[in-house]
Amino acid sequence: MRDELLTAIADNQLFLQYQPQMTSDGRSMASVEALVRWHHPEKGSIGPGDFTPDAEAAGVMSELGNWILRRACRDCARWPRISVAVNVSALQLRDTNFVETVVDIVREEGLAFERLELEIVESAVIEDFARASEALSRLRSLGIRIALDDFGTGFSSLTYLRRLPLDKIKIDKSFIDDLDKVQSAAIVHAVIALSRALGLKVTAEGVETEAQQRFLRSAGCHFLQGYLFSRPVEAAEIARRLAEPPPLA
């Protein structure tokens, strides 16, 4: 698997798709999330959930993560206005050269630091909280934004809201799926209110219906991401949509 993944990186078998993150009214694209795919010569297109665990086990997550970051920065530098969100693994965060690597890649690809957002999950900071927090603080001081992904699925998320250098949280899709249930709706409403009180932006993942959009907008959610607006698409499609005139009010 290690050799296969290294070959995939070297031979351009990997490619990125991007899922838009929209303003709550659904009219404007604020950013995109980069999602890696593997065009395997025998198995066809493979999603990240099917091979990133193998990349971690094979010890090539840093190489994979650096490839994703570089390609995402390169694509975003060609687009106007929007920012790009890139997922960061626990193994990347533990790398002693992580900050320097990120800074070098962003500068080499000509992207403004303010247009990059790094998404981390709670498990990525548990093992060495001090090191992770220090690394994220250094990146944030340059203008790179930090988002806590899959919020609500861990055990200590409120602690991290208080202690990590965050700009945004992303509410996990599992809560959005159950918005028609009183308990989930109350939790989502409370999380949005708490985040806004702390000065954090909020993105809801997995928005698939207009009813969910109405609820989240009325609750004060800043950004929405999901199939209601777009599936992940190629970089050229993002460029095409950005070139279109804005919809009429």
TrEMBL record:
Residue span(s) of domain EAL: 1-246
Pfam families tied to this protein: EAL
Gene Ontology molecular function: cyclic-guanylate-specific phosphodiesterase activity
Highest taxon in the source lineage: Bacteria
SMART domains: EAL
Protein's name in the database: EAL domain-containing protein
Organism: Methylobrevis albus
